[in-house]
Records
---
Amino acid sequence: MAGIYIHIPFCRQACHYCNFHFSVSQKHRDGFLIALLKEIELQKNFFFAKPGEPSPFIDTLYLGGGTPSLLSRDELRAIMDTIRQYFLLKEGAEITLEGNPDDLTLDKLQVIKDIGVNRLSIGIQSFHEADLRYMNRSHTSQQAKNVLAIALKEGFQNITADLIYGTPGMSDSQWQENIMELANTGIPHISAYSLTVEKKTALDVFIRQGKAAPVEEEQSVRQFDILRDIASRYGYDHYEFSNFGKPGFYSKHNLSYWSGEPYLGLGPSAHSYIPGTRQWNVAHTQKYILSLKEDRIPSESEILSPDQQYNEYIMTSLRTMWGAEKDKVAAIFGGKYYENMMRQAKKHLQSGTIADSGTHLIITEKGKFLADGIAADLFI
């Protein structure tokens, strides 16, 4: 498998919790599009194993950001046409576009469908106005409800929506309402994230200044448990810590990340990966544009050490319902890494936060909210 991620660095307004690379100014939008199309051309050989070998089919394409749904019909079409010109999209490839409810009008949804997008990722976060104001979201609760109805009516079957839990002031009953509002639409996938206060974000500043209520871990843990219970009752598999999908509707793009498949990142701040090597573009839109005017991709790269590759495998695999494959660790990384993993796992096996299926180490229900810490314990 091979995937492509495209980062669109523009937003209508800044969410208080966001630490991704974005700008609410649109003044560099034309220059960005020209630069992006040039980068697509320059990276056309990214997946070639050897000179002269045919490029592999692209299984997944993901337009994220930022807010890709801000782009116009012509901008979206130019991106898709250029991707198809230089890369081979597999028939039936999963093509995802992130969008906000206030952008996804009927006309915009028809445009998105017309250019070949077959999976929508809608940033809803909450159906309660107080939560949306706390997060500084640009849409209303009613817009969120409307876009789900319109998208389903337009024939989008593969839809995921984002929710955020642990928001100060959101009661458990309100959180239940959020989950059930989505589940009752029948959409096949939900991504849910604990509100996290990232350094240097507006939310971080407001909390330190006493202008916003702080996030409480106890609330997040409780609401995570509520989420798992309701999602299970509605037929969603908890296949990754933050992702719940019905069978056949897991995110293929994200699964490729977690399984170590190669992917190409395009746009400012986007990351790329070929097994053993990571590359990332400059997180500065103007520098990105200026560099590509000179036909240079503004990126840095690093060769991952065996320790780094092992640690990344442990981190990503333990977040999934399949867990870390013991034979894979032994075969790819060697006996030293396998022995470290099993030795470090002992206390978690004894406490019941990890289970050993015989072939895999799997985080149990008891250990779900502790997954990152458990994985760190198994690092070398």
---
Amino acid sequence: MSDLHSPSTAARQVTFRGGGFAPSSPRWIGVAVFVVLLSLAELGTRQGWISPLTLPRPSDVLLTFQELYASGLLWAHLSVSLTRLLVGAALGASLGVATGVLIGLFSYVRAGLVPLTAALFPIPKIALLPLFVIWFGIDEGSKYALIAFGTFTPTVVATYGAVDNVDRSLIRMGQSFNLSWFSIVRKIVLPGAMPGILSGLRISLAIAIILLVAAEMLGAEYGIGAYILEAGSLYDLERLFAGVTILSLLGITMSTIIGQIERRVLSWRQ
């Protein structure tokens, strides 16, 4: 019995070791992966292991970037694409989040809109581009509509799924403290659903970039999609890969922005 109460066996606090449940992401690893892949591609094309008809040299793609920037065409294409992407994605995401929250909160809205969402979600949005051209014309209207619609449906699904997954014991706790319905939604439901909503926005924005390229390949003079289409028709691999790289950088930028929003909005999870 004396051993149980000795100082050596006294209870001590064990620090939390997150392991795989608290992952960290050293930024240098991601940069190192890109550097290694680009170095292998440069070495392979210079040594003849990779045919230049299959993959251009990364150094040549970089020179194409410099020429594109010097000529002013980079901003001419990028500004038009960014405008289309931001307008279409903002419209589709905002309507999608609002609709998803309504579906998650109201039974009648859920009964009416969930079957409609399930019917619209599997439709390939690119297949609807000719229809949008008929409805909104070949100018900017059809491009905004395609991007907005393609962003809308996955955002709705992610949002009402996130609202459904909010811990019901927290809602009952709020009710036990006599919180009003609006207070429960604002202080419990929306913060609890925010991780799922932001995860859904990552997917929706990636879909928006894909649809942006598809929309710009039809009747657009400027835009990254039009630039890639022109390069592909001329079999200019350097310009083609330059356009693809711009899209990749655009996707990384969008993901970084969502990540910054997550750190600010979800700081309560720390």
